[in-house]
Amino acid sequence: MRAYLTLVRRELGTFFVSMTGYAIIASVLLLLGFSFTDMLAKLNDDPHGAQAPMTELFYSTFYFWLILLLTAPVITMRSFAFEKWSGTYETLMTTPVSDWQVVLAKFTGTLLFYILAWLPLFGCIAVVRYFTLEPTILDPWTTASTFFGIVLFGCLYISMGCFASALTRSQIIAAMNSFVIGLGLFLLSLRRLVPAPPADWAAKVFSYISLSEHMEDFARGFVDTRHVVFYVSLTVFFLFLTLKVVESRRWK
Amino acid sequence: MSNGWIIEVENLTKRYAGNTAVEGITFSVQRGEIVGFLGPNGAGKSTTMRILACFLPATSGTARVAGYDVFTQADAVRRRIGYMPENNPLHLDMRVREYLKFRARLKGLGIGRSRARVEVVTEQCGLTDVSRRIIGHLSKGYRQRVGLADALVHEPELIILDEPTIGLDPHQIRSVRQLIKDLARDHTVLISTHILSEVEMTCNRVLIMHRGKILAADTTQNLQNIMSDGGQVIAEIAAPVAELRACWEQMGEIEYFDIAPSEGEYHRCALTPRSGLDLRPLVFEQARLRGWALRELSRAHHSLEDIFVHITRPDREEETR
Which of A168, A218, B267, B306 is 20 to 30 A removed from B33 (C-alpha atoms)? Predict the structure, then answer.
């Protein structure tokens, strides 16, 4: 436990001792700002038509997805790849810490940073709440569930990023791999917008794995256990794969 | 467990896809020794050390550190060794003290103890002046000391250093060597290097590795004795060649000799004794009796370099195959 906490601290610390962390936070803020103005424009066009909670307007902007899809590969790419490249992986793995501690610490540290980068979202929402005449369109519950959805999404994409990073020594390749896996999964969810699924069961499957549908529910304030199970189980699966990659060094 | 052996390696083999890095080596190291792992690049030194540090598994054979198997009891082994890999990788973005504290905590030391130990190793490795500086801004010599301090921080029983002086300037090499010698007082140290003089200066036992095999394992002193060719003596004497020849021929203790002109009237004589006996007092006695000027008298001393070249030379390899 002690080693785990030390590693989490170190992992989170790496983002702040160099430019990377600040640069990532700044770009997330920029994109968040864009989607915020986008949302305000929609509200201005039709101030009384906003039946649905405002977070829904928010999630449907293009920038929002850009942040979700881009941050995870960028923040996870260095987790294992950089340590392997610089050789500190060897000093790390020859200390009495277990493989799962390392994997879990890298995941947790990165996830904490991801959450930190998303916190300004509350600022945006607070601004709207302060100036709007109808506070009902932004109740705390939908805000919380949206944020919960964002965190779950982050768990999944960060675990995929850790897996991609554990596979290689090159940060660029790690980032590309995790981006491609992530984008692939996201495009599957867009499939429902393109042609109609050939069969009933296929439609069900696609709807089950559709990330945008999940996010729609979270933004409306529905926390569906099916979605939670989907994200949690996939996160566990990718962390398990990462652990196996780390262990594979000691396979005979 | 405390039978005096800290490292016991038996028939250790490591194969990577296609080639064999280490081929069935067997050796052991006693507590308190400084052992030098000597061999050209690619001899399998680093691989052996990585296996001992529980970073890589062996293909076959067993290795034990302080009685614990490196594969099945890796955690217990890792607690007992301080390992500094080749090229000494460090987190360059951290400060010296911060890094050492981080490492001490990773190695399972509590807050109070890690603080105390960091203090001790900072002092021991001469890092007090730079303890607040960022590692990436330090010179290579200092970085090496940080690596050593890291290896020491949890008071390991065994210290494994992979090429600790590589890439340092002569002055830095000397200070790092001195540091290693100081460590040896209360630790067992295993060093790998391809610099022969380093082993000669710091280690009391040498393991010579070549192409994944251990070709020789003995104390530096014994290896030199084996090589000393029956104790050949070199004498530089100012005397006519004929007189010298007559003198050596009549001495029964000399098996054969060789005389070569040196500068001035001096001649350089290489004298090989019949048995292992020391010719030096006899030669001096002759020179004194005959009134010759004697300006050099020495027994041929073989450096590890000669031993190394002798052992790893190609024709010997044919024999061992």
Answer: B306
For A14: left if phi > 0, alpha if psi spans -120 to 50, otherwise beta; the answer is alpha
Q: Which residues contact B276 (CB under 8 A, 6 or more apart)?
A: B230, B231
Indicate if the pLDDT at residue B296 is higher than 90. no
CB-count exposure of residue A214 (10 Å: 0-12, 13-18, 19+)? buried
B104 CB-contact burial (10 Å; exposed 0-12 / middle 13-18 / buried 19+): buried
Q: Is B319 part of any domain?
A: no
Domain span at residue A105?
2-248
Selecting from B53, B93, B106 the residue whose C-beta is nearest the C-beta of A14 gives: B93
Q: Which of residues 79-108 of A touch B (CB under 8 A)?
A: 86-88, 90-98
What would the pLDDT profile of B175-203 be if each residue is shown by its tens digit? 888 888 888 778 899 998 877 777 777 88
Is B251 found in the same domain as B183? no
Q: pLDDT, tens digit, for every residue of A15-35?
A: 998 888 999 999 999 988 888
CB pairs under 8 A between A and B: 65
- Three-class DSSP category at B271: strand
Q: Does A1 touch chain B (CB under 8 A)?
A: no
Whether residues B217 and B246 share a domain: the answer is: no
Structure tokens at B259: 């005389």
Q: CB-CB: which of B50, B71, B75 is closest to A96?
A: B75
> In this structure, what are the phi and psi dihedrals at residue B170, rounded to the nearest 5 degrees?
-55, -35
pLDDT of residue A142: 82
Please report how many Cα atoms fall inside a 13 Å half-sphere around the Cα of residue A124, on the Cβ side.
Answer: 22
For β-strands B158-162 and B188-193, DSSP reports them as parallel
Are β-strands B34-38 and B205-210 bridged in parallel, bridged antiparallel, or unpaired? parallel
- Whether pLDDT at B94 is above 70: yes
Shared-domain flag, residues B148 and B290: no
Question: Which of B226, B255, B283 is the C-terminal boundary of a domain?
Answer: B226
Domain of B154, CATH number, reads 3.40.50.300
| Owning domain of residue B281 | 229-299
Chain B interface test: which of A92, A94, A99, A106 (most B C-beta within 10 Å): A94
Asked if the structure places residue B109 within a domain, the reply is yes
**DSSP label of B95:** B
CB contact under 8 A, B94 and A17: yes
**Residue ranges of E strands in B31-166:** 34-38, 60-65, 68-69, 81-84, 158-162
